[in-house]
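Put briefly, the fold is written as integer tokens. One such record reads:
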Amino acid sequence: MTDRLSLYNKALLYCSETPLASLADDAVARHVLDAVWDGGAVAKILEEGYWNTALRTLELDFDTDVEPPFGYARAFRHPDDLIRVNALTTDPYLTEPLLRYLDEAGYWYADVDCLYVSYVSEDPAFGGDLARWPASLAEAAARWLASVAAHGFNKAEAQIQRMELAAERAFTVARSRDAMNQPTRFPPAGRWTTARRGFGGQGRDPHSRCG
């Protein structure tokens, strides 16, 4: 099971440094890794892919306290735990992409009253739960931690470059393995097809409810 201490110790192994007995150890190694971790390590690691274990889907209603001065009629606040967007749609099955919108200053602006967003989340119940990370993601995370911490351990530049390359390769492997666990995806149907099925898609009344 992955936890912070296991990631630290694997990173220290790759840096040829002494492992920690606990996260309370008063050691240089722990202080170096703490600085990396507190600098947004989890968010940076999760940003490297659309990890199944970190994906979260929400239905968002427009923010009644925000009235756009012009253009799009509605404003939707980004979730606080948002890392990167996987899909932004007008239906709960995530098959009808929202095509007309503006992403600006922590809001999505659009002409619908609700939207559905699938995204990589750092919430403790999603991507922030290290115990849920698959082994390949944990390996990539440890490689990345090692490559950043290596600067604090004054490793040679050539060694740091090799560690950075190893981290990039580990993330490639992790993304590939994660993709194998995702359901088969098909491109969204065209407007003519959705019209024949009786769905308005983007052409619906801009002030009607989604779904």
Remarks:
- Helices lie at 4-14, 28-38, 41-46, 135-152, 157-179, 191-197.
- Residues 188-208 have pLDDT under 50 and may be disordered.
- The two ends are 39 Å apart (CA to CA).
